[in-house]
Amino acid sequence: MSGRIILHSDMNNCYASIEQKLAPALAGKPLIVCGSRAERHGIVLAKSMEAKACGIVTGEPIWQAREKCPGLVEVSPHFDAYLAFSRAARKIYARYTDLVEPYGLDECWLDVTGSTRLFGNGEEIAEKIRMEIREKLGITVSIGVSFNKIFAKIGSDLKKPDAVTVVSRQNFRQKLWPLPVGMLWGVGPATEKRLVRFGIRTIGELATADRDAVSRAAGKGGALLCGYAAGEDSSPVMPLGWRDPIKSVGHGMTATRDLVNNDEVWLMIYHLAQDVSHRLNLAGMAAEGVAVAVRDQSMGYVEFQCQTPAPVLSPLSVARVAHQLFVGKYDWSRPVRAVTVRAISLCPQGQAVQTSLFGCPQADERRERLFRTVEQLRGRYGKNAVMAASLCQNIAASPQAKGWIQMPGQGIRH
Q: Quick check: pTM over 0.70?
């Protein structure tokens, strides 16, 4: 294989495999890692190979999974253990190259172009890593070997579990072009539907399609996807420890009961904004835009967003914008099941901004100073040392929900 040599290593059934490793009695049993039914997080987060053989898929309700497999074992997630295994795997990867770019807990890209004199060709390095992961961690990985990140990722999906697949410049047309277009990185369900309506069903058809026409059919990223399908990706594998600039900061939660009016949604949004603002502050950022995503009782999903007249940081400022957006956009055709609040269009805190004639910069400044004081108290005495009085009541919020920092590109950079 000439040119770059890129590996994509994917831990097979990561969460479920680790649970079986930690509890040997579960080995060989159909197992799912799932959320709390009491907190209405009762969906399949991960499944073992045995559960997969019964037709169980990630994201389906637990009751539906049980209908497919009556003997199904349910296990709560242990994220600390998954993180420990992930770190151990990355240490193994780092023995072969310093260019190791994580993509979630269970996947990594490796650029081993400069490692061949020490460890052999790309396929040989992949086999060594596969065997070392199995022997030292007791779990398996599937590894794709290719000349770019996109094809290496597809390669890791072609043979599972515990396998190595080589996608070369010589064979990628035969191996990848007949595959469904949805298997290409960057083609989500909505884009796949648009491409299929346009007559593009396979990766090969996308690779050879007219790029301007695809862009008109699938959006401005259509030409880029055509390039991916044709093997033109040249994005680098970033060094281990490198962090992408923060694109947005969000926090979402499934309510413990359906929310039925604007007041209940306000409490949920204000609760979520506490975490959003805290994470913004840790990153030294403020938001020039806010987005609100809503999942209703029937699992329908909508998202609204807007720009703010001036950067916002405090929970009250973020929540007010988010709630105003929700009230103005949501039609209340159904009760609300889940809400997500995101701070978008981020900017550094303290940067000069054009003030509005109709705004009140002094009040905004006092609010931000109060927020920073509260942050200091919480940092010293704990998260619940200072709370908004309205959030002390019994709101429909789960104490287990997690937030995130969303990165741009999801691992593909140009």
A: yes
